[in-house]
Structures are given as structure tokens and as C-alpha cells.
């Protein structure tokens, strides 16, 4: 359990992860002092720290921006998240840039419809990227998490790692502080990737010698394709399929940890959504996903869905993305 009573910034550092603790009443400025020390310990140069830390300001996340999606089930969420205009815009962008998307698909083995769906859903095709300084967003998010004592699962450690990654981007690439803009969640550019993902996978897709995931969709999309390829994306496979159950299902079977062949699922009463038998093949092991329980939409998910989970953990979001990918093709 996170202890708040120790001296300000008692720092425990492991592989750039750290646990910090604060006295109650510590300010954002106090917290930044601690982050500065953490950055130096993570081998960020004193010059980078001196150059960028003075520009970091507390960032207050807007409340209620996602309220329209709160407490919605998939039946409500997917049509709201994927209105027809998003589908038609995706088709138009695909047709207008088919050659470029097909080139990325050939090189990285990721079908364009998935990249276009992630683009549409993550930033409304680049229109809603967020224009907040990523260092301010991430430092503030880490500070807020430290106050609430949340360390794991998008807690303080997560945001500090991303903060350090953003500083490394500034050290390795010729960006200015204000060039690194993000959403309120600290995700950046057309495809809304995290700084750590940028460090690992950023690519110059347009071939102009410069990586610009904020203004150049080719760079942004190539970066995400590179990430999915590295995770093991299967170019000859899809993400999964919506299914229906003809018998009551044991709750034990509804887990990504449970993987069975189509035949095994067939025996348990799972059928295609339209009612037909599942594919007659036993060379894949797939899992049952039911975010709204067995009364809601249910899916069999394949390896590529697991790859998408590395990009974004939110099942509802990903199921909206896969739905959009089906509508675009
Ligand atoms: Ca470029």
C-alpha cells in the first residue's frame, strides 16, 4: 500500500519506475522538484531538465468530457462512438489515399481498415488530437495519482514512465517543448500514441527525413503499423467475430485467459451471430469476450484483438474500432 506519511519524495527507483510519496499538502511545485531528480536519475541530461522543466505547468483535466459514454452498454456505446459520418469519412479517406495505405499494409502486414479505424476513433481523423503540452499533462497526471495513492494501472508509475519517455523524445528528436502536444490523457498525434510507444516505434512514413505524428498521417500511421507488426499482427487474419450463445455459459469460460478451438466453442453452444456454425477449423485458439455479460454483445476474439489490447486496453473502445474496421472494408 502506498504510504503518504514519509518524507516528501522518498524515491524508490527500479528500471525507470519509481514510487514516490508525499506529505499531505505538498504542492505541484514540490512534486516537480521530485520529478526533476527522477529525470536526472533516469539519465535525462541536466541541460534538457533545465530547458524544459520551467515550462511545465499544472494541467487540470476537464471534467465530464466522456460523460456521454458513461454507464453505456455496447448496444448504446458503439452507435454513439461510431456514427455513420465516421464510417463515410473513413471510406473517403481510404479511397483518397488507397495507394499510400496499401503500401503501409504491404510493408508492415496490417490491413488498412484497422489503421483507418484506429485513426478515426482515436482522433476523429486528426481533428481531435488535443493540443496540451504533453509534459504538463503527464506531470500533472502523475501528481494527481500520487495524491490519490494510485500507483498501478494508469497510476503514478504509469504517468512517470511516460513523462520520462516524453523527455527522452525531446533529447533524441529536434522538437521544441510546445511541439509535443497531447490529449488530456497524454496520447499524441493522429493515432494518439503514448510517448513510450513513440520511442519504441516512431517511423518516418513520408520519407522526408522527419517524424511528425501530429501533422503527417503517413508518419503516424506507419508508426502504429510498425507497433502492430512488432507485436505480431497477423496479416492474413481478422480480429474476431460477434457470436451468440445457444446454451447457458459457465462464467469460467468468459476470460481472455481461456483459449479454445472453434470446435470446442461449437460444442459449448457458441454459433456465429447470424446463427450458423463456427468456422470448421481447429488451428486457432480463441477466447470469449463479453464486456456486458452474457446478456450483452459477445465475441470470439483472435490473436489480432490481443495485439490491439497492447495499443489500448479498453475493450469497449476496441470493439468500436473493430466495428468501424468492418464497416470500412
Ligand atoms: Ca515524415
From TrEMBL:
Keywords for this protein: Signal
GO BP annotation list: peptidoglycan catabolic process
The keyword Signal belongs to this UniProt entry's keyword annotation: yes
Cleavable signal peptide: 1-21
Superkingdom of origin organism: Bacteria
Keyword check for Signal: yes
A Pfam family hit: SLT_2
Listed GO MF terms: peptidoglycan lytic transglycosylase activity
Residue ranges of every copy of the Transglycosylase SLT domain listed in the record: 28-326
Identification of the protein by name: Membrane-bound lytic murein transglycosylase B
Amino acid at each position: 500500500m502506498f504510504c503518504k506519511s514519509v518524507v516528501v519524495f522518498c524515491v524508490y527507483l527500479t528500471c525507470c519506475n519509481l514510487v514516490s510519496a508525499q506529505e499531505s499538502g505538498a504542492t505541484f511545485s514540490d512534486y516537480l522538484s521530485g520529478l526533476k531528480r527522477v529525470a536526472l536519475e533516469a539519465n535525462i541530461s541536466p541541460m534538457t531538465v533545465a530547458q524544459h522543466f520551467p515550462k511545465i505547468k499544472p494541467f487540470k483535466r476537464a471534467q465530464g468530457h466522456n460523460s456521454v459514454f458513461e454507464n453505456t452498454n455496447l448496444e448504446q456505446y458503439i452507435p454513439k462512438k461510431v456514427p455513420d459520418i465516421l464510417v463515410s469519412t473513413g471510406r473517403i479517406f481510404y479511397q483518397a489515399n488507397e495507394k499510400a495505405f496499401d503500401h503501409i499494409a504491404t510493408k508492415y502486414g496490417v490491413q488498412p481498415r484497422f489503421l483507418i479505424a484506429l485513426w478515426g476513433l482515436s482522433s476523429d481523423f486528426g481533428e481531435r488530437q488535443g493540443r496540451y503540452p504533453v509534459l504538463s499533462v503527464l506531470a500533472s497526471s502523475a501528481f494527481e495519482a500520487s495524491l490519490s495513492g494510485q500507483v498501478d494501472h494508469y497510476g503514478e508509475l504509469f504517468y512517470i514512465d511516460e513523462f520520462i519517455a516524453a523527455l527522452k523524445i525531446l533529447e533524441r528528436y529536434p522538437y521544441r517543448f510546445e511541439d509535443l502536444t497531447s490529449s488530456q490523457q497524454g496520447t499524441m498525434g493522429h493515432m494518439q500514441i503514448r510517448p513510450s510507444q513513440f520511442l519504441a516505434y516512431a517511423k518516418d512514413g513520408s520519407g522526408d527525413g522527419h517524424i511528425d505524428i501530429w501533422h503527417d498521417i503517413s508518419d503516424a500511421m506507419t508508426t502504429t503499423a510498425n507497433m502492430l507488426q512488432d507485436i505480431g499482427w497477423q496479416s492474413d487474419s481478422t480480429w474476431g467475430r460477434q457470436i451468440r450463445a445457444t446454451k447457458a455459459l459457465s462464467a469460467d469460460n468468459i476470460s481472455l485467459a481461456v483459449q479454445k478451438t472453434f470446435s470446442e466453442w461449437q460444442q459449448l453452444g457458441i454459433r456465429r451471430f447470424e446463427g450458423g456454425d463456427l468456422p470448421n477449423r481447429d488451428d486457432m485458439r480463441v477466447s470469449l469476450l463479453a464486456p456486458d455479460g452474457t446478456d450483452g454483445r459477445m465475441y470470439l476474439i483472435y490473436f489480432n484483438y490481443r495485439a490491439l489490447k497492447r495499443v489500448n486496453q479498453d475493450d469497449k473502445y476496441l470493439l468500436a474500432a473493430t466495428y468501424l474496421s468492418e464497416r470500412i472494408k
